[in-house]
Amino acid sequence: MSERFKVSSVGDGGPQTNYGSMEVEDMDDTIGLIPERKTSGKNSAGKRKDGADDKPFMVDMKEMSGYEKNLYLYSEEMADRPRVSMMINSLANYNATIPSAEESDNKPQKAKANLGTLMGVFLPCIQNIFGVILFIRMPWIVGTAGGALAFTIVFMCCCTTFLTGISMSAIATNGVVPAGGSYFMISRSLGPEFGGAVGLLFYTATTVAAAMYIIGAVEILLTYMAPSISIFGDFTKDPSIMYNNFRVFGTILLWIMCTIVSIGVAFVSKFAAVALACVIGSIIAILVGIFYNINGSDKMQMCLLGARLLTQVSNCTKEPGGPLWNIYCVKENNTIAENIEDCDMYFQTHNVSEKRAIVGLASGMFTSNLGPHFGKNGQIVANSDDPDDYESLNNPTYNQVIIDITTSFTVLVGIFFPSCTGIMAGSNRSGDLADAQKSIPIGTLAAICTTSFVYLSYLLLFAGSYDILLMRDKFGYSVGGRLAIAAISWPNEWVILVGSLLSTIGAGLQSLTGAPRLMQAISKDNIIPFLSPFSVSSARGEPLRALLITGCICQLAILIGNLDYIAPILSMFFLMCYGFVNLACALQTLLRTPNWRPRFKYYHWSLSFVGLSLCITVMFMTSWYYALLAMLIAGIIYKYIEFRGAEKEWGDGIRGLALSAARYSLLRLEEGPPHTKNWRPQILILSKLTKDLVPKYKKLFTFASQLKAGKGLTIAVSVIEGEYAKSYGESHAAKQSLRRAMNEERVKGFVDTLIAKNITEGISHIIQTCGLGGMKPNTVILGWPYGWRHSPDERSWRVFLDTVRNVSAAKMALLVPKGINFYPDSMSKVSGTIDIWWIVHDGGLLMLLPFLLRQHKVWKNCKMRIFTVAQLEDNSIQMKKDLKTFLYHLRIEAEVDVVELMDSDIQTYTYERTLMMEQRTQMLKELRLNRKEKLNIVQAIVDHHHPTGEHSASKVRFKENEPAVDSDAEAEMSGTSEDTEKKSKNECFKKLLTLKPDEANVRRMHTAVKLNEVIVNKSHNAQLVIINLPGPPKTSRPESESNYMEFLEVLTEGLERVLMVRGGGREVITIYS
Hints:
Layout lengths: L65 H5 L13 H9 L24 H13 L2 H5 L1 H35 L8 H10 L1 H34 L13 H25 L1 H28 L4 E9 L2 E2 L13 H6 L16 H5 L2 E7 L28 H4 L18 H8 L8 H4 L7 H30 L2 H5 L11 H4 L5 H33 L18 H15 L4 H29 L13 H18 L1 H19 L10 H17 L13 E4 L12 H10 L5 E8 L6 H17 L5 E7 L2 H11 L9 E4 L12 H15 L3 E6 L12 E8 L6 H9 L7 E10 L5 H15 L4 E6 L7 H20 L2 H15 L22 H27 L5 H21 L4 E5 L9 H14 L6 E5 L11
Helix pairs in contact: 2-29, 3-9, 3-15, 5-13, 5-15, 5-20, 5-21, 6-7, 6-20, 7-8, 7-18, 7-19, 7-20, 7-22, 8-18, 8-19, 9-18, 13-20, 13-21, 18-19, 20-21, 20-22, 21-22, 26-27, 30-33, 30-34, 31-32, 33-34
């Protein structure tokens, strides 16, 4: 084509677009000309300075909404992907964030009581941590272990709970945590198997804790307040009498408390405030009493026979006829001896003395009370290391104070540890907190630190205030059955007795209230089928069946009778529960799951492992057989839930084990789609190859590496056009090139190639068949076709658009990085912002991608900014507030901005850009007809010059460069073709001159231009811009497809790095833990 042509004016004084002098072959370089964007040159009348109308194309937009005017490019998306302004309010209020209807955490939250950190977390934790052990066992532990080892015991237990509190704070702030405490957190973090096992352990621990509190309350009542109500005689002479009393009175108290709980929780809730006041008042009374008696007190005197401690007597002397004489000088015929030679030998050879029980801090006894005094069951409490003093040697012990349990460091750890439990009280109340993600960490850790400080300081104060013998006297027999910790309090010991009794009963009621509800929660999850009957509630909503089984289990624990035997069992179950909390936190941190975004930042996997190690250590220190039993129970429950009758497939050696594990895992993944919390991008890279069979854009692999941070599944695939039998060698070479590219970018994954006769069909087959079982890609990275404007061949964009359609049909997410060569490599570090332009709700993928990128060192220093657009009819202030709330619950830190798109008429530039786009499309359409039509014309001329009467087709056919015809035909063909070509050009020009842009195209271009203006204005300095990819045209007409590509070019114009994202139609991010 030697003829020159140009496009002249459109309308009166309209824009003139001169394509200049060009051959058809040069069209590639010029058909992408873009008019210069102008915003000035208008007068007040809306006319340009040259007098032409500024609005040559008018679209009536008076009746349209802001979204129809300004976001028409996304109109097809909004049919099934709601715009942000509609969704953000429900997202901020916990709706529409989890797609699975079966999950209990998908239900809307009930109205919350706006409890703060103090009332909602701190004080409940204080009430649950301070318990019966503090009041009736702390001085005994200090006296038995000594001040130094007692400090070690308490410090180790407090460290265990503190580290567990850190892990629990991380888990509890990783989304909205409904009631359920550790069971909910662990089951949602480690899965139903661990959750069910630990849930039952925690339930058992809570039930046994109720038994411990009941036994403790009975001990306070019977031993220190009303010993006369004993129904089996004088328990000071025989410990078994005391434990039988505990069993009887404990059973009575248990079922009274169960009756109270069954009536309703209202009384328990009100009584909790009373119990809390009693705890705090008692602790203050003890502290005041210690300093009030800083110089000691003569109110309580202990009687000693030699080094042996005796029970209280009215007259601590050896005089004949006195209380001690009548005890130690009894003959075989039960008569009282008159001579001391007939008395007990130890009584004969040792003198009697009295000592002050409360010596006071000023006495200097602290250092002498630091050493341990462990003993065995049946030994005598004595202030001596001589066996003659503390061993009875088969002689009668008379009224000497006897050790009733063999003690050691490990035994005391097991007895004390329950006094550190109760740290879950805050997380159990998360539904009642105004800001659970803030209150739970602060309140829980503050309560742990406060109680730890009280325990550690009080044990040191006890070591300096009490005589060592009084502390070793567990039940206070040497001072008339008085509670040692109550004796020192101010103003009166009854403050402590009444306060400790009420607080212990309150703690028992709390346990009997919480345990049945925990059992009901486990039953409702239906992970343990035989527990399903306990999910039923009464007409008043009370879990009576669960309460009944809880009472029965508690009854079995009460029949043990001895608090010192119940406490180690309780410690086992709590330690197992805390150990799994630490394990959950450590695994989530190391696995770096996308949903792991705790708002609490002061945690580390190493701290969780130290906490787990401490839990296991304390378990085996306390009782190795109880520890093994607890682990065995947890293992049995785990296997019962996980797999009933699992098949085992053993091959040869380690490889057989690996294959068996892989097969088992794949079968497990096949069960269904992953939960929203477990969704992570499993990437399929569609890599285009050069003529040398190497990846054209290696930065795609770099981007995938940064997005995955070495985690998850990545598959890189290329399609080679041809036949498999002839192209196997090329396929193998291409696969090696892909593998080298993966290794260079340190991407862990798989590579493959596919040979197909058609690139589009090959990609479609890959999308449909790639992966195995549940390990299928869910995200496709597709390169942008940079040369589409410079090629008249529609295949330049057809492969891209067909791939977009196929990915959407497969419900997979799509990532299209534009400007991929400008993306940073894995060795560099960028700083600045990652800007997200959230136009339509796509399941949260736009939120998740920058979070995942920021896990990589390249993007770590970038901050996130999230922009969304509002129209005049939207409440932009409320949208911004809701968006901040939504991001807060997602645990994502980002700046938020709502950009208001003002209504405006379509600009001249938009019209010109649309007109040029459609002119270009029309020219390409005409050019696609050129060669075939010309050959048809020539063939008609040849047939005309051979009128033989035969109707067979001419044997003369024309090659592309040099058609073989005779001279006459050639001459006529030349003249005719030139005339036809000129005529065709003239018709083409006429069409172009009279071309009127389609209204829908103008509106789509208006969206692209307007959005591009605000994006460039706000994000021109951003390191990466992430934006929703508009849906492709539903029709496959080349004109619509070419226009769509032009819209995307306009939308991203002037931006160096752009990531266009299209979600797969499901939620990929959630506010829940």
